[in-house]
tRNA pseudouridine synthase A (Candidatus Enterocloster faecavium), 494 residues
Amino acid sequence: MRRIRLTVAYDGTNYHGWQIQPGVVTIESVLNEALTELFGEEIAVIGASRTDSGVHARGNVAVFDTEGKMAADRICFALNQRLPEDIRVQDSCQVPSDWHPRKQHCVKTYEYKILNRRMELPDRRLYAYFYYYDLDLERMKEAASYLLGEHDFKSFCSAKSQVEDTVRTIYSLDILKEGDEITLRIRGNGFLYNMVRIIAGTLLNVGNGRMEPEELAEILKARDRRAAGPTAPAKGLTLVGMEYEPF
Amino acid sequence: MRRIRLTVAYDGTNYHGWQIQPGVVTIESVLNEALTELFGEEIAVIGASRTDSGVHARGNVAVFDTEGKMAADRICFALNQRLPEDIRVQDSCQVPSDWHPRKQHCVKTYEYKILNRRMELPDRRLYAYFYYYDLDLERMKEAASYLLGEHDFKSFCSAKSQVEDTVRTIYSLDILKEGDEITLRIRGNGFLYNMVRIIAGTLLNVGNGRMEPEELAEILKARDRRAAGPTAPAKGLTLVGMEYEPF
């Protein structure tokens, strides 16, 4: 028995998120079916990040165990033949049999994309949040600086979440602009439920003048979801990648 | 009666190109329906560029005549309310009643996008041509230089085309790279049927070593479609914009 790690990219538009749920198509269910077919044995992946409905990924991670003999680095190619074109496994390799993608220290990188112009652009409609109003990037950068480092991010966590420890570390939060498109690029040691989308919604409120950059300090202190801005739409969010320590 | 000019952006994925054809959905047919509904009179647009099935646009141009009284610069907003989200009119304005989008001098800009890496990326699958093999950009740039200026581009025109005058001028052909994505950006006074896609296919053959940059001179001289490279897929192509002289 070998444990295989996959790096998975997908366009989340047509999926009800990562996690298996009855009656709907998810990334996890499609991967399990393709792997089961490929190896002729029942296979169930363990995913690193259970992305929401409509969220995209370039580098989510999953592992599975198999008795199959196929060379580990060829599995991605064979698997892609059996996957729909909106899911593409980028890489496959063998890992130790106790390696678990949610039980390792890792740095996650997300990008949130905002299309900031007067008219929507059809070819970006599924990958960026269209935002009509002017945004002041300097204010957004100032606000972002309050979030760097270790903080209790309870205010930036969906009220639905039942997680107890809401302390996380953000290593960097860069705000980049290219043409009409703004990218919030955020790296951290873990993210709470909807955390990146709530950060994006809050920074948008600072950018359009509804909030002041300094308010971010109070929002953190409040430890209350209602203190932060709205949850920005799923389609702007991409899980870019996960960096694990070598085993 | 006023003549109104529209700047139209669309994701060509779900359309059988611009031009009306029986039994299929086209950009032109959807625009006509939405305009007819909006103004309550039968409206038929005249398009500048009849893009092929699967080709995208950020700035195609069309005109129509109407008795309607709506402010010209508001028409785009009212129209977008009635259009599917993969078509978005960027701008609307009044033009002289004899202004015709195919009978004016204009500079057209196209972009052809190539995703050059080992694995496909789902979120780029509809907007860039995935190309696995290594490409030498310096060779491609050298080849492109042969196409600049006024030439007979008959070798770069689909053999199906019946156009007689195949002389066109290319003002610039830039080859840019950002991460894994290569953009061929081409500006000219007009393009023959499939011309940009055949140029892209030919430059790919130079980039991968199958052709030499100097061969471009011979290909032009041949005036024969068979001398050039293959027609690159439609989905990589976007009509970026059309610059007309002020009226």
Observations:
- The first strand of chain B starts at residue 2 and ends at 10.
- The interface with chain A takes residues 9-11, 56, 58, 76, 80, 85-91, 119-123, 125-127, 238 of chain B (CB under 8 Å).
